[in-house]
Amino acid sequence: MYGMVMFVILxxxxxxLMVGRTPEYLGKKIESYEVKLAxxxxxxPNAVILIFSAIAxxxxxxxxxxxNAGPHGLTEIxxxxxxxxxxxxxxxxxxxxxTIFYNCTLGITMLVGRFFIIVPVLAIAGSCAxxxxxxxxxxxxxTDTLLFGVLLVGVIIIVAALTxxxxxxxxxxxxxxxxxNGVAF
Length: 185
Hints:
- The chain is an all-alpha fold.
- The chain has helices at residues 2-19, 32-58, 60-63, 70-85, 100-116, 118-130, 146-180; strands at 24-25, 28-29.
- The protein is 70% helix and 2% strand.
């Protein structure tokens, strides 16, 4: 739930920029402090996923655990780290994640993906708790409308696409096109 609240804060901020008014959420003004912490909360797990996937894809410790080469191997690595950050911890059958390298890096990914981001969320909650409630005015961007819902979904899709599309283009998408041409890994 707190992940969605962080996306809501980012969406309220972006909507406030578009309208030219100070963004508000639940009667509290959203300022740069909250937006910076929300951005850290949203981007930190993604950064850890991509950084550790890149390290695993270029080191012998990371590659030695793969059962499949090429784009399927990259997909296995990406899935393992994405799953660890999402607190699922599963992996494709071809990846032997029970090595010192993967145990350490997946453990760090879990810590960042689930526990590190709690700190900025609590800082935002504390900051908002200290602020006075602002009355609703004609300049308030309502967050219970279809327009806000569309903006929220758009922000989530854009952040996810900009963060993960390059790595997905090298892994599962390339593998799909290669499989259609008869190349399997």
